[in-house]
Amino acid sequence: MPGKVYLVGAGPGDPELLTRKAWRVLQTADVVLHDDLVSEEILRVLPLAAQVVNVGKRCGAKGISQIEINALMVSLARQGKLVARLKNGDPLLFGRAGEEMDALRQAEIEFEVVPGVTSALGAAASARISLTDRRHASRVVFVTAHRAAGTGLTNERHVAADTTYVIYMPGNRNAELAEELQAAGIGAEIPCVVISRATTKDETIFRTTVGKLAQLPGAVAPSLLVVGSVAGVPIGEETENEVLSKEFRSQILSLAMEHPIHNSYGRGGVE
After folding, report:
1. Same structural domain for residues 180 and 81?
2. Catalytic residue among 57, 102, 246, 257
3. Which of 113, 124, 249, 253 has the maximal Cβ count within 10 Å?
4. Are residues 142 and 214 in the same domain?
5. What pLDDT, on a 0 to 100 scale, did the predictor assign at position 118?
6. Do 61 and 159 belong together in one domain?
């Protein structure tokens, strides 16, 4: 009997932000093909019986191509395997899910998409930013900085003042992004926030302005850049750089692990 492929959203990094359906699929999967940006915390909750394979483009082995990933999913499903294709955030947002779904359709392999908390929302929650605060923004634009021709910000001429930009995968392009943002009409005084490894114990948050963005070091991936009036520093949080306490986050995770509901979802599987 042919198997099935699930395109699963891992969320931004915290295992407790996995959906119940994502957790169930991961606990019953024969094979998990995960991207390199999926957090260590998520990988640690995978069942010991599952075959776990890193198919990330940044992994130590020579880069695996998208065509090879597609072929691997098809091959495993034809062997009768239940395959979880695990992607950081949500599979349908900058996750190449479109190409993978096309390959599975062409091979007549059954598949299903399991949505995840997209990284933009996880990062905004960590930085306590309302992306559509009605006092400042009525429009949100998701853009990826990981494109050969730039971010696409060059198309954002005459930007409305009530626009929030969430730029995925800014990497070490802070200086270039600052230039692109200002070329698009976004003022140097506009606040912005860089969130790295959102919702994990290694999370860092850096607050600055578009004009000073180039002064920040490149953030550790996965990271996001939020630009707009909504990113202004709230009263009582005036520090330029905010680094969340690892000790405090460890205490939170420890308490969560002791919670009776959490304990009902053991590593060995779920009902």
Report:
1. no
2. 57
3. 124
4. yes
5. 95
6. no
Q: Is the peptide bond before 222 cis (omega within 30 degrees of 0)?
A: yes
Average pLDDT, the chain: 84
Along the chain (271 residues), what's the average pLDDT of each consecutive run of 10 residues?
Answer: 93 96 97 95 95 78 83 97 97 94 97 97 96 92 72 64 90 91 90 96 95 92 94 58 45 48 39 30
The boundaries of the domain holding residue 155 are: 120-248
246 catalytic? Reply is no
- Is 169 among the residues known to form the active site? yes
Say which of 14, 35, 73, 81 is annotated catalytic. 35
Instruction: Report in angstroms the alpha-carbon separations of 178 from 1, 196, 212, 229.
Output: 53, 18, 8, 16
Which amino acid is located at 123 in the chain?
Answer: A
Give dist(CA 123, CA 13) in Å, integer. 10
Co-location of 89 and 147 in the same domain: no
Closest CA to 22 of 9, 40, 33, 41: 9
Question: Looking at the structure, do residues 167 and 66 belong to the same domain, yes or no?
Answer: no
> How many domains, the chain?
2
Active site residue 30: no
Among 91, 117, 143, the domain-final residue is 117
Looking at residue 245, what is its pLDDT? 42
Q: How confident is the model at residue 270, as a pLDDT?
A: 35
Does residue 264 lie in a domain region?
no
